[in-house]
Fold this protein.
Amino acid sequence: MQRMSYFQGIKYRLLSVRIIARAYLWLSAKYYHFSPQIHHDIRHIVESARKSGFRIQSIYKDYVVVANQNLVCRLKVAYPWIFNEVFVLEIYKFHKPLDTNRQYILIDIGANVGYAALYFATQTWCKEVLSFELLPQNIAAMQENLVLNASYIQQKITLYPYGLGKMTDTTGGGGVIMASYFEHRDGISSMIEGFLQNYAPEEKGREILTQCEIRSASQSLKALLESSDTPIIMKIDVEGAEYEIFEDIATHYPEIFERVVKIIGDTHLGFEPFYNIVRPFGFEVAFKQDQENLTCPFELERVKS
């Protein structure tokens, strides 16, 4: 009977927490005059956060703040899917084990609002994260996410407020380009014209153009990494620009691949053209999942010669 009482007590406590969370959400909805759709989206966030060990800290009209024992994240109410991918589905959990007795630099190309950078920064093997982001509004949102977190997390992550691309001159100074994005979907933004038609044709005509800074991938990475010998893991999610970026690196800074142990991320216009760029440097497929719209989550591992 004591055992039953103990487990019943746990059950009732968990039920009480869920009731309180629902009541908090209901009161917030009344206070901020949420529409039924926003109310539904927040409930989805609450459920996703709970599944991944997060708790709701506060709810506002346009976003919620969630936290677990290591991290604090600011989530956009209308588009919680990237958070869900990183922390619930764990899309960056390696399929092939990593030697965690070593320390690695994580190069985060296409940082979005910082969820992946925060995820990697909590890993014991991660020495530092170098994040690159193209869109000004994502850069601002990532900065807000970073300052919510403990100093030891912030110190691991360096945000470079520009995108990476191909080298257009010998200085690598880059320039200004136009990129498209959607206010309601911060997971879709690109400087590649053909990406939107392939990935989200239903959104055509609703995109917003904005000026963004871009710099040569090879020159930028060389300036940051050539004085170090720490092994590297590269993560890339840049909505179609991955081919241009890695062609630039392969052409102008190929020696970096001698230090890269893994490349993880997504291709958006076909996997094979991307793989053909890095295959000559000794990378083999540890995981890939071809999808109907040419998107392909993947993990590549460099095989030592």
User: Anything to note?
Assistant: The chain has a mean pLDDT of 83. The radius of gyration is 21 Å. The longest strand covers residues 208-216. Residues 249 and 299 are 18 Å apart (CA to CA).
